[in-house]
Amino acid sequence: MPHALEEEVGITEYLSPEVQGFSGNFKERWQDFHVYEVDQGGVELHLSELITPGAVAAELKKNAEERREARSALGASFTFEPDAAAELDAALGQGNAQELQSFLQKQTVAEASSDAGEGAAEAPAFVDFSSAEIDGKEARKKAHAAILKHFGSFLNTETVELPEGARMLRIWMREAERKAKAPTPGSQAQTSGGKGKGKGKAKSKAKGKGGKGKGKDKQQDGQEKVESAFGTLRREGWPKDRPDYLYFRLYKENCNTGEAVSSIARCVGRSVKQFSFAGTKDKRAVTVQAICAHRLPADQLRRTVLHRLWDKRLRISDLEYRGERLRLGQLRGNRFKVVLRNIPPQADTDASAACVPEDGPEHCTLGQAFSAVKGGFLNYFGLQRFGTREVKTHQVGAAIIAGKWEEAVNLILGVYEGKAKRAAQESGGDRPSKLRRTDAGCVDAGQEATHGKVQQSTTDALTIFLETGDAQKALDVMPRSQHLERCLLGARARGLPFAEALRQLPHQAVSLYAHAAQSFIWNSVLSRRIREFGRHPVVGDLVFASPNAEAFDGDTCEISDVMVKDSSNAPDEDADLSEEDVRKLPAVRALQNEEEAAAVTLADVVLPLPGSEVVFPSNLTGVYEELSQRLLGLSISDFSNCSIVQCATSESNCTIKSRDRNVHAMSMQCPHVHLLSIWFQVVRLV
C-alpha cells in the first residue's frame, strides 16, 4: 500500500499555486536521498574519520603489544625513566615513589612461582601509600593521574578509607584484581546449581534494583564494593572528571534511526534508553546525525565495530564527551541532497543543460518552480507521518485518544471490518527499503525471498488471530521482526485487557500514533486557513511574543522508527533517561490590528497542535472543533483527556524556507531520462 494521497491527510494548498508543477520520481532509490543534520551551532554533520574494523583491530593489537612490552620490563632490574621518576617524585613524594618502584620490581616473581613450587614467594598484590606525603583531595587526584599516565595499562589505583578514618592511596596489579574476582569454592558461581547454567547468578527470588548488581554491592552514591583477596575496594563505575555523555556522529544507509540505535545498543550491551538524538532521520536514505549515549566509554564504542552483530550499514566518528544530554529538537535543521528521476524533457527547454539557474526564464518550468521556492513552502506534516499501511497512523491515534482501546489494538494489527488488511502484504509498505539493491534499483533475490517469507508469516499470524481469536497461536507464528504486533499479541495471550495491552507498547509508539492525529488536524486547519484568509497575516493570527523564539513541533518519524525497549543489561543510572523530555513552549501573542499584521510575514505565523493547555487563534477556534468532529469524530477537549498518553501541544510555523539551494539537471542515457539533483537546507526557524 503506497503512502496516503496528500488530500487524504489535509494537504490541499500551495504557497505559489500559480506556478506550474512538474512530475518526477522521488526517492526511487535510497541512494537518491541524503540528509545531513545541522547542529545548533550551524555545523553540518559529516563523518570526519573512518572507524573501520581493520583500523580498530590494528589499534587494539598495537595497544596490546605496548602493554606486554611495558609489563615485561618489570622485575628486579626495573627502574623509572628519568622523566617519569621526576613526575612521580613530585606527585607521590620520594618515599612513596621508591616504594612503588620496589613493588613493581617484585612482580615477575608471580610468573616464576608456578615453576618454583609452593615454597616460592608470591608477588604482592597491592601496595598502600602513606597519606603523610599525599595530603588532600587535589594531591591524591594528582597522584592517581601520574600513576595511570605511566602505568595505567597494568596498574589500578584507588583511595581507600581505613577504619580509623584515615585515607590512603592503594595501587594494585590489574591481573591480581582479575584473579581475586575469580570464583572460589562456596561462591555463588558454584552454588547456583547446574552445569554452567545461571551464568553465576545465585538462586534468589529477590527482585528490584538490588538484583542488578550481579554479586556486587552497589551503594547509594553509585559506587561498588568489590570483595577481593586483598581487601574491599570502593571503585566508582564512572570517572568523576569525565562528562556523563558520549556524543558521536552516526552515518547510516537504508535503515531508520531507531533500528540503527537499537543495533548499536545491542552490540555494546546497553539499553536503548541510554541513547538519545535530536531527531529521527529518514529510513530510505543516506543520513548523518548526532547520537548521545549516557556513560558509554568511547573506547568501548570504537571496539564495537568488531562485534559479529555490527550492522554494516552503519558508521561512526567524532567521539567526544559532553556534560549535557542531547534532547529532542536540539538541532538547527537539516541539509538535504535529493535526486528526482524521470523528469519529463518538456519541463526544461534545454534538457542537456548542465545547470538550471535559480532565476530561470519564465518559459522554463524548473526555473519557475525553484524561483518560487525562494519564498518558502507550506510547513505541512509530510506523508510519512501517517504511515504506509492501509490503516493510517492518525486513525489509530484517533481511537487511542477516544478511549476505544479494542479498536486501537485491532487497527494496529490491521484487523478491521472483519478483514485482516496488511500493507506489508499488498505492497511491502516501508519494508522494501531494508532490502539491499544490486544495480539500477534491483533487489537482491535472496533478500527478496526472505522478505516474502516475513510477509507471509505476518499475514498467517493475523489470519489466525482474526479467525480464532487465539493470540498465543498467532504469536507463535508472528515473525520476531514485527515488534509492535508481537507486543500486543503477547499481552492478549496473557489475558491483559485491551487498554493494558496498549500500555505494553513503547511509550514513544503510542505517542507517535496520537501525534499523527494531532498532525492530521493541523494540516487540515492550515489548508482551511490558506483558503479562507489567504497567504498573508491577518488579524487574529498568532505569532511568537519574542522575535527570537523557536518553534518546536516534536519530531518527524514513522512508527517503524520506534525503538522497542530492552530491559536486559539496563544499569541503574539510566532510570532518569526514561522520562519524556519536557520543553516549555514559547509565549505567543495574537495580531490585534492591521498594522501589526502588516509588520510580519506568513513565515512568522504559527498554528498550535490540538492538545492540553493550548492557545488557539481566535479566527480559527471554531475550525479546529469542526474539523476534529468531522474528520476524526473527536472533540478538541478529547486531546487533553487521553488517559494513556499525553497529547502535548506545540506550535509550528505556517511556512518555512530553504537555504543554499543548488540545482543541477542531467540527461542520462538510461531508462531514467532525466535526473534533477537538488541541494538545500531547511532550518527550524527563519
TrEMBL record:
PROSITE patterns: TRUD, UPF0024. It comes from Effrenium voratum. GO terms for cellular component: nucleus. Pfam families: TruD (PF01142). Residues 376-658 form the TRUD domain. Keywords: Isomerase, tRNA processing. Residues 214-235 have a biased composition (Basic and acidic residues). Belongs to the pseudouridine synthase TruD family. InterPro entries: PsdUridine_synth_cat_dom_sf, PsdUridine_synth_TruD, PsdUridine_synth_TruD_CS, PsdUridine_synth_TruD_insert, TruD_catalytic. Residues 177-235 are annotated as: Disordered. The lineage of its organism: Eukaryota, Sar, Alveolata, Dinophyceae, Suessiales. GO terms for molecular function: pseudouridine synthase activity; RNA binding. Residues 196-213 have a biased composition (Basic residues). This is TRUD domain-containing protein.
